[in-house]
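Q: Could you write out the predicted structure for this multi-component system? I'm mainly interested in how the pieces pack against one another.
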Amino acid sequence: MSERTFDVVGTRPVRHDGVDKVTGRAAYGADANWPGMLHGALLRSPHAHARIVSIDTSAAEAMPGVKAVLVGAELPDTNASISLGEAAIELRDMSHSMLARTKVVYHGQAVAAVAATTLDIAKEAASKIVVTYDVLRPVLTVDEALAPGAPILHDDLVTKGAAIGPKTNTNLAARYEFKRGDLDAGFDAADVVVEREFRTPTVHQGYIEPHACIARCGEDGRAVVWATTQGPFVVRDASAAIAGLDPAHVKVVPSEIGGGFGGKIVVYLEPIALALSRKAHRPVKMVMTRDEVFRATGPTSGTKTHVKIGAKRDGTIVAAKVSLWYEAGAFRGSPVGAGAMCALAPYRIPNFFIEAHDVVVNKPKVAAYRAPGSPMAMFAVESVVDELARELKMDPIDLRLKNAVDEGDQAAYGPKFGPIGLKTLLRAAKTHPHWSAPLGPNQGRGFALGFWFNGGMNSAATVTLGADGSAAVVTGNPDIGGTRAAQAMMVAEELGIDVDRVRPSVGDTDTAGYTDVTGGSRVCFATGMAVINAAAEVREELKRRAAKIWNVSPDAVAWEKGRVIPPTGAKETKSGADAQPMSVAQVAAKMTHTGGPIVGRASLYAPMAGPGFGGHICDVEVDPETGRSRIVRYTALQDVGKAVHPSYVEGQMQGGAAQGIGWALNEEYVYNRDGVMENAGFLDYRMPVASDLPFIDTVIIEVANPLHPYGVRGVGEVPIVPPLGAVANAMRSATGVRFTQLPMSPPRVLEHIAAREAVAVGA
Amino acid sequence: MAIVHLPSGLAQFTGGVESVAIDAPRIADMLAELRRRFPQLADQLDDIAVAVDGDIYADPGYQPLRADSDVHLVPRIAGG
C-alpha cells in the first residue's frame, strides 16, 4: 500500500478520450440522431402550486405532424423505490415530479408531453394543450413552509423520524438528531461562546451540457435509450418502472457527459421519451433548454442553519449545538442528514447536539450536488469557528489543529475514524507560504475545512487481453473526471504494460456488469478496485498460460514487472534450451494454443471507506465603493489517499473550489412571490468563469486509505465544501463584516459595509 | 457481543435506549434482532445505513460482524 512503489500510478499520461473531446468528435447527449426520429417537447406549469382541474389535449393531437401526446395519468403509479447504493429514490415522487398528475408543486413542472416530426411542431402543439388550474399559494422557504397555517404540499406526507404520534398535515418531511455528552454542562464550562444563524440560497450544479436523450421503444416492448447520465443502470431501472416497461427489455447506452456533479443521477426525460416512443412507434429525442434545466431539474437546497459553539480560553471546544433546516424542493429528500453528519466531523467535541429538518417547499425537487448537504452546514460551522478564533485571539488553523479529529477518534456522526490526514493537512496549511504572505489594501484572508465520507458501492470491471498484448478495460461508469485514464493506468500498473496500450471504455447496460453511479467520489476508489482485481486475474491467468508453455506448475511461475519468470530448470519445448522470461505480449501471442482468450472479471461491493478532508486558504479583495469582491489568491489542500493521476486530482480540487467560490459570491435562484424563478439563464445566474478566478494552487496530501490496494480515497466532492467558509472568513477579514447569508454579492456586501460604517459614525 | 449505537433521534422508538449489545453474526441478523426487540423502530430501519468498525454500508446486508464490533446506525447519504 503506502510502501508500494509504482511505475504508472502517480504519472500524468494524456487521457485516452482527450483528443476526441477537444476536437468535437466525442458524442454527447444531444448528438445522437436516429432514422425516423421525432422530437419531444413539454408543456410546463406556469404556477408553483396548483391543483390540475382538467387537461385538454385535443387541439395538440389534431395538429399535422403530431404523433403522440402524453399526460401523467397515462403513466403507471408505483410505490417502488430503487437504490442508488447511497440512498433510495422514491419512484412515485420522481414520476410525479417529471410529469404531474393531479397537482403541480413547482413552477416549470411538466404537465404534458408531445412528440412530433419537428421540434417547432412539438412546441407549438404543447402550447395548444389547455390546462385548467386551481391556483394555490406557494411556500418558498423553510420558514414559510413550517409556519402555522402554511399551505401543505402533500396531504399524505408523514414526518419521518418525528416523535411518535400524529405526523400528517405538515411540510416537515423528516427529522434527524445526534447528540453526545451533556450539552448544558459543556456550555457552562465554556469561557467563550459564539452563536450565529446562517442562510444559503438554492443553487444549481451548472453543468454545461443540458439533459438530453433519445429513446426507441418497439412494438415488442424492447427499448433502447441513449442518454447523458451519471448512472446508466439508474436510467434503465427508473425509466422502465416509470414508463411501465420490463427493465429486462431496456438497454441504456450512456453518451459522453458534459458535467453532472450529482444532477444527472436522477432521470427527467428518459421515461417520457420512452412512453412517447411507445405511442408513436418511432424514436423520440428530447433535449432541455438551459431555461428548463434551471426551472425543472434538481438544484441543491436553500438552507437555514443555527450554530452555537463554546470553547475554553485555551481553545478547547467543549460544546456545540447545530440546528439545520434544508429545503427538499417539492418532494421529500434534502441532503440534510448528510449535512448533520458533516457539520462537526472535523472536530473532537465532548458535548454536542445536532438536529436536522427536511422541509418540502414549492421549488424543484433537489438533486445531489457534490458532497450533498455538506457545504451549507460546514459554511455555518467554519464561520463560527473563525469567529471563535477571533474571540480567543488564536490563529484559526491552530484552533482547528487543537480540536482536530485523528485516527481512533469517534466522529460526531458515530463511528471511529481510521487513518485520516486532517492534522497533516492543517500542519501543511500552516506552513504553506500562502498563509503567511502579506496582504494588500482592502484584502483579507480566510481558512476553512471541508469533509466528505466518500462512497463505495457496487462496481464491476472486465479486462480483456489482445493477442498483441494490449488490453481493453470496460466498466459501467460514465467518465466525468478522467476515470477512463485512471482505470487504464491501473491496468497498466498491474500488467506492466504501456498505458497507451490499454483501451478504457464505458459500457452500456448490456455489456458492462452492474455498476452504481458515477458519483459519491466512488469511481476511482470502488470501480478502480474492481479494475485492479480484474487485471490481477489476467495476471494470474498469464502465469497459468506460461506454466503450460513451460510444462511446469503454475505456482512455480513468478511475476516481475510485466514478465512471467520461469522456475530454475524449466526448458523451451522446441529447443530444449533454458526457458527465458516472457513479456505479456509473448504469452498473449500464444493464447490460442494455451486455452483461448484471456479475460479477467471482478465485481465487488465496497463500503464507504476512506473519508476525506480538505482545507482551503482564500485571499479576497473587496472594493469598498462597489462591493465587488475579487479572489486574488487561493490554495486548496486535500488528503486524497493516493493520487492515481495527479493532474485529474488537481483538476477536481480546482473545479470544486471554483464552484464553491461561485456559490459563496454570486450564485442564487431568485424567485418572485409567486414562486417563479427570475434568473433562469447563465446571463443572470452568475457562475464564475476563468477570467473571474486566479490560478488555484493545490497541495495533495497522501495519507493512504487502508481499504484500497493503492491507498486511494475519493476526491471529487470534498473540494466544494471549504470555499463557502473560506471566502466568508476572508470577507470578514477584509471588511470587518461577518456575512451570514450567501451569496456575498456586491449589493449585499455594499449594504453591510454601509451599515457597519453607519454604526461607526453613530458611535 | 457487538455494541449497536443508535442516533439519539431514534431513541424515542426504543424507550430511550441509545445503545444495545447484540449477539449477531451479520448485519442483517443484527437488524432483525433490533426489529424484534423494538417493534416501533422497525419502520425507521428500512433505509438506514450501518457503520461497522468505521466502514459505512449504505446497503446493509449480510456483511459479517465481529463479536466486539462497534456498530452505528446512521442516515443514508447520497453522493454527487
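A: Regarding packing and overall arrangement: The domain at 18-24+456-606 of chain A is CATH 3.30.365.10 (Aldehyde Oxidoreductase; domain 4).
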